[in-house]
Amino acid sequence: MTSRRADVHTSVSTWQQPCPAPASPERTALVKQVADRILALGDGRLRVGIDGPTAAGKTSFGHELAEQINRAGRSVLRASLDDFKKPWRDRHLYDRESGDETPSTTPP
Asked: Which of 1, 11, 71, 96 has a beta carbon 3.0–4.6 Å from 79's, enabling a disulfide?
């Protein structure tokens, strides 16, 4: 690992959350430990998924992890599953559970 700083690229999203301030020394140590394990997997392109229930802190953890990996000199693309959903402005046009278009928007 090097000490040079690389780029963190973020995908275009309908909603962006800033990287949170460190919550505690223990959390910072945990994020660093996870980042070190990821970096130990090699220099090639790696994909990391973060899963969990709503409001569990996935986005914050992802931001913190991306920053830690970036500090090690690796470029990071920070994407969110929200980037792959239909836009919020179209929420009334489809069933939010199934993703199917509502009958009023289905072409004849």
From this structure: 11
Rounded CA-CA distance 59/20 in Å is 10
CA distance readout (Å), 14 to 17, 41, 44, 83, 88: 10, 32, 29, 7, 8
Four-CA torsion 16, 51, 9, 42, nearest 10 degrees: 170
Q: At what angle do helices 25-39 and 58-71 cross, to 10 degrees?
A: 60
- For 36, the domain range is 8-105
Each residue's pLDDT tens digit, 56-74: 888 889 989 999 999 999 9
Please count the structural domains in the chain.
Answer: 1
Q: pTM for this one?
A: 0.65
